[in-house]
Structure formats: C-alpha cells, structure tokens
Q: What sequence folds into this?
C-alpha cells in the first residue's frame, strides 16, 4: 500500500535526465491512465480518498525544486501553495458520451504540458457517458514513477468492494505534511552534502569493483577482459545515436497524439504463448509486430525489421517498494516481416531474453550519473538522437487480478497510455482481471490513419490468438 512505499527526497540521476530532456518538447514523458467505470463514483467518498492520498503519498504534494548551480539532482519538496482543486477536476463528457469521446478528451489532456511550479499530476472524472457510466483520467509525469510504482501508488484510491464495510471503524484523516521551504543557503549546503555522500558511495563501490576485478583478473584473466569488453560494448549499444526511424512511412514527428484502445483476452493470449513456449510478453510483442507488418503492407511499403524500445524492469528486492523509476529502455531491432505467428513469437523470445542479459542493465546508475553531469543541451541532443529514431515502444504492466472499485464505481477496464518520447507509437498492455487493455498512443504526423493502424493491430493479434485455438472472432 501507499504507506509502505519509500520516497526519496531527490530525483535519481536517471529521473533527472528524463526531467531535463524535456527542453525538447518531443521528448516529454507524460503517462495517462484511463479507467472505464460502470457508474460515476461517489463524489464525497472520492474527495476523501484523494485528500487522504495526498497526505500519505508525498509525491502528490511535492513539486520539483532545482538546486543552486545544479550541484545535485533536483529535490522533491512539499508545495507551500498546494491546491487540490487545481489537480482534481470534474467534467462532463462532450458530444455523444461515447468511449471515443472519452479518448478524445483524454488525449487533449495528455498533450498539455505540466505546470512545473506545482506537483506533477492531474486527475479528471468524466461523467455522463452514454451508457450511464463514467471514466477517470489520471495524468502524471514519468519522473514520479514507472508503471510498477504507479500501480502501487494508485492502490490508495481503489477498494475491493462497492460499499464500505459498515462494521469497520474509519481511520482518522492523517495530518497534513509539514511544509517548510528551504532558504538559498540551506539549499546550497544540502546539495553539497548530498553530492558528497553520493560521490563517497560511488567511490566505495568503485574500489570494491576494482578489488573484485583485480582478484578476478589474477584468477581468470581472459574472462575478466571479456566481461569488461562486453560491458563497454553493451553500454555503447544502449547509447548509440541513430540517424532516422527504420519505417519508411512512420517517420513524421509532432506534438499531437491519438489515443485508441483494444481489449484482448488474457487467458487466450497466455495460452497462445504457452503453446509455442514463449511468455505473455513475447506473444504481446509478436502481436504488435504482426500488426505493423500488416500496416506497412497496406501502404505498399513492406519492411523486415523495425526499431523498438522496451523498458526492462531492473527493480531488485531493495527497490520493490521504492517510488520512482527502475527500468532500462532497451532499444533493439525486432522482426516484423515474419508472417508465421509461431516463428514470430520464438524470434521475439530470443531477442528479449538476450536484451535482459545485457551487461548495461547493471550499469544504469553509473551511466546516468555520468550523463547527468554533462550540460543539459548536450544530453538532450544525445537522447533526442537515440529516441527520435525509435519506430515504436512496447510496455507490459501487470495490474490487479481481482475486481476493484473506486468510491462505489466498479472499474470495468484499465488503459495506460505511455509517452511517445520521440517514437511514432507507444503500445502499452495493462492486465486487469482476465482482460488485457492495449493502449495505442500514436503520433498523428507518423500515423495519420489511426483507424487503419488499429485494424492492422487487431489482425496481428488475431494471428497470435489462433495459435491457442481462439477463433478469429475473439473480441479485440
């Protein structure tokens, strides 16, 4: 639960890079979550839930404070001007109250930049859907947390039952957090102390690593040289700039996005993966690749491979309850030209397994620490050259396997739209109950025909689902 999550007072080096590269607006890192509800939530109960969450989850009341002379990474500090009404908004769905209308509103919300003087989140309740239902849109900056941490944080808003237990004594409202802005002198000394402790920690780890390497070099000289060489090569692959996307048609980039959703059966996709000997994630990526093959063929520009970024979770036992981001954006070529779904899953399985064993995954903190000390314009250009050449992003986030409610409203489906960050498309899979919500976020300059794009994606997943004996009419 939220009370058990650890919140650091400063951004990590990796989060700092993510924060500062937004000097280029194409590299914004906005996450947008959309819940489809069977009815509007109870306003009074929801207000109480949100207020309680802002008092128990520090990030919901904290803003990013830069440091004098950029000595250390930015601090998370409580906003002395925090106003919950600015972050929580209750609106009515426009036009016909359809799910399409909800997505149209959500994508406009996602395209708007954050007020950097305030906490980096917004919360919308959209009422008056055509079927009597409602929707909730949560928007937050990726610097707050990755998908795993986000699931932990939002647990404070959901309940297992529609109505609260009348025999359970309500917990008292926690006190508001103490807000004491630091003076400029305090900021300088605090930054110096933090940076000093970080450098001492890095020096200690380096000495230990050198000692280990020297010992290994004496006992296993050839293996040590190979391991060091592999680490350097892996880091070079992670950071290598690219000239342009591989797709001949998904090359445009803009600040405008289009949201679409696809629903997939979780048991069916799991069964398809198991039938071939792959994982759920393998089947997911293979379905996406099949859809991209169809999309390019539809436009008369078939391709064999495209460049994909996939976040690899590097959370260890010590990071499991820690807010923030603990992932490495692995970037590699994937086969989209394989027509046979079985072969495609197996090919993806081998590629993903190889990426998970990359030595650079263990060097995340050290690499980020070095890059963060470069001038911001330098690493913004570096990351821009890395990210704008990505054709698409995939992400797989596990959600709750049990029915959940929010202030009396049943959550019927969950969709999480990941940021494009320079790519043409982001496809994020979020599991809930026995359903998979596939969120399709595309750059309108790269994909001007989103209806065709979604149709092709559905075709790609139908190919995969047929491996499990699922009929072509399986709901997508």
A:
């Amino acid at each position: 639960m939220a009370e058990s999550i650890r919140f650091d007072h400063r951004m990590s080096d990796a989060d700092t890079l993510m924060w500062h590269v937004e000097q280029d607006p194409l590299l914004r890192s906005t996450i947008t979550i959309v819940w489809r509800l069977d009815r509007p939530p109870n306003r009074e109960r929801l207000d109480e839930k949100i207020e309680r969450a802002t008092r128990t989850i520090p990030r919901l009341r904290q803003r990013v404070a830069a440091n004098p002379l950029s000595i250390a990474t930015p601090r998370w500090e409580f906003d002395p001007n925090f106003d919950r009404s600015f972050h929580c908004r209750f609106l009515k769905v426009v036009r016909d109250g359809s799910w399409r209308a909800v997505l149209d509103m959500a994508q406009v919300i996602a395209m708007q930049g954050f007020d950097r003087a305030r906490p980096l989140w917004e919360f919308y309740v959209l009422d008056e859907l055509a079927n009597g239902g409602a929707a909730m849109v949560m928007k937050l900056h990726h610097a707050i947390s990755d998908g795993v941490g986000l699931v932990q944080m939002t647990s404070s808003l959901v309940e297992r039952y529609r109505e609260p237990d009348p025999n359970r004594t309500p917990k008292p409202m926690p006190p508001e957090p103490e807000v004491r802005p630091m003076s400029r002198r305090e900021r300088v000394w605090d930054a110096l102390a933090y940076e000093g402790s970080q450098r001492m920690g890095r020096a200690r780890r380096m000495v230990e690593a050198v000692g280990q390497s020297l010992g290994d070099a004496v006992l296993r000289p050839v293996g040590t040289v190979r391991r060091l060489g592999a680490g350097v090569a892996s880091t070079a692959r992670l950071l290598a700039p690219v000239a342009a996307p591989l797709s001949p048609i998904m090359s445009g980039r803009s600040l405008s996005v289009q949201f679409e959703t696809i629903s997939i059966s979780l048991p069916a996709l799991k069964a398809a993966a198991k039938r071939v000997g792959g994982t759920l994630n393998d089947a997911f990526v293979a379905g996406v690749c099949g859809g991209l093959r169809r999309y390019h063929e539809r436009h008369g520009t078939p391709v064999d491979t495209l460049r994909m970024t996939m976040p690899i979770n590097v959370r260890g036992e010590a990071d499991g309850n820690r807010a923030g981001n603990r992932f490495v954006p692995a970037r590699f070529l994937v086969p989209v030209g394989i027509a046979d779904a079985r072969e495609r899953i197996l090919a993806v399985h081998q590629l993903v397994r190889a990426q998970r064993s990359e030595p650079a995954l263990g060097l995340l903190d050290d690499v980020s620490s070095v890059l963060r000390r470069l001038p911001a314009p330098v690493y913004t250009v570096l990351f821009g050259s890395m990210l704008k050449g990505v054709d698409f992003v995939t992400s797989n986030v596990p959600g709750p396997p049990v029915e959940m409610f929010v202030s009396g409203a049943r959550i019927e489906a969950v969709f999480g739209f990941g940021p494009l960050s320079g790519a043409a498309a982001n496809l994020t899979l979020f599991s809930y109950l026995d359903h998979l919500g596939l969120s399709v976020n595309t750059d309108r300059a790269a994909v001007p025909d989103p209806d065709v794009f979604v149709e092709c994606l559905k075709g790609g997943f139908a190919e995969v689902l047929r491996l499990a004996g699922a009929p072509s009419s399986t709901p997508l």
User: Anything to note?
Assistant: The longest strand covers residues 257-265. DSSP finds 13 helices and 14 strands in the chain.
